[in-house]
Amino acid sequence: MFRIIFNNLRNRRKQNGWLFAELIIVSILTWVIIDPTVIILHDITSDPGYDADRIINIRINNYEPGSKYFDVSGYDAETAMNNFNIIRSKVSHMPDVKKFAVSRDVINAGSYMSGHFNSGNPAIDTIAGSSMTMDYLQGEPFLSTYGLEAAEGSPSIEQLETASLNWNDIIITESLDRTYWPDRRGIKDKQFYMFTSQGDTLVENVVGIIKDFKPFSYSQLSAVKLWPNEIEDHESFNTINLIVRLKDGIDPETYIKDNDKTIRNELQVGNFYVKSIVSQKGLIREYENKKGITSQRNLNLFIAALFLINLIVGVTGCVWLQTGKRVAELGILRSYGARRSQIIKMLMGESIVLATAAAVIGCIIYLQYALKEGLSVGYEGNVGIIAPESWVNNFGAHFAIISAIVYAIIIICVIIGTYFPARHVSRIEPVDALRDE
After folding, report:
1. Separation between Cα atoms, residue 387 and residue 372, nearest integer Å
2. Residue 242 and residue 269: Cα distance in Å, rounded?
3. In angstroms, rounded to a whole number, what is the distance separating the alpha carbons of residues 30 and 409?
4. Which residues on adjacent β-strands are paired with residue 385?
């Protein structure tokens, strides 16, 4: 069978020239479409590095002066703090609440900042990159509520949450630690140096290391620095987030639906009111919609689906035209005893071999572009940020995996596009095929 297939391709190389050229172009276009689509889906669906289940986010806002709900007596710092402590107490007594933390920033919707720094080691500080920075309130079980885990050589999560930290003590993620101290585990004598515009040097002491997590649902695992902070006055209460972890077996969406009104009424104290209640996964969906991530993902999937449908239709048309010119040849094979299944396998084998050669050439051509322009890195937040090694940011692995996906897609489309015309022509009886000969 293989000998017949290769002989047929050699004998019909002129007739197959256009189809072969078309498949090369299709291979390149498939790379252009599939690469960003696969990376987008990978980033959105990959493990976030923390436990996103059973978390709800309650955003507490403060009525401003001028609002008809503003309470003048509750505006001073002491009253505001007392009122907020009442809210904390009420949250701790909410049904099915396992743990909660107060925070300004929240994972997936925080106000992250990128900053450049060095570790004082000239050999390592040549590495270009930056990290995201987020605040957490000291003394709050922020890390454990999200289910973040301590890395090797670091104090435990419980120790980090109960430690008394200074303003320049920071917790970093594992990828940031391994980038700047690849041969050292633990936190001993690890510092970062940041230089201000005034020429001052800010020293950051590393007091803990946690495993990598995704700051945004559409990013990859990233380097993050967490700064301890505190609420200094009543104006700091303008926007406060309550990160609530529910007990095992409690569905956050159902919990919010059943308790939304009660929570809003209970937590309205003084000038404080509940602006929103949303599950962590709901927050992710909202933020993806807000940033245009969902529409971009759907557009990419639509373009990919439309392209593949057109590819199948195009291959089907080309193969149908080619097989229509080979009716007599196939009729002779049938008259010599070739079965219908053998005819189908032969035609499909020719298309697969042709598509394989075209896909290899197409990927090699795209490689020249990729070496110059790079491969897809996903959505914003992935560029320039230190991240752990993965197939996405490893050029060789990235190119090999996407090439394999491109090849598989082309072969599947070619098989589908070849099967129906091959099946049709295999059903023609030898006497009908040879009638005009």
Report:
1. 22
2. 15
3. 8
4. 130
Q: How far apart are CA 76 and CA 397, in angstroms?
A: 59
pLDDT digits (tens, 9 = 90+) for 147-197: 999 998 999 999 999 988 888 899 999 988 888 888 888 898 898 887 766
DSSP 72: G
Spatial neighbors of 424 by CB under 8 A, at least 6 apart, are 320, 323
Cβ atoms within 10 A of the Cβ of 116, count? 11
* List of the chain residues with pLDDT < 50: 381, 383
**Domain boundary assignment for the chain:** 2-46+292-433
Identify the sign of the CA torsion 12, 17, 19, 21.
Answer: positive
DSSP-H helix ranges across 267-391: 280-290, 293-324, 327-335, 340-373
The two structure tokens encoding residue 45: 């669906």
Burial 20-42 (b: 16+ CB within 10 A, else e): eeebbebbbebbebbbbbbbbeb
User: Which pTM was predicted?
Assistant: 0.79
pLDDT given at position 161: 92
How is residue 8 written in tokens?
Answer: 């047929």
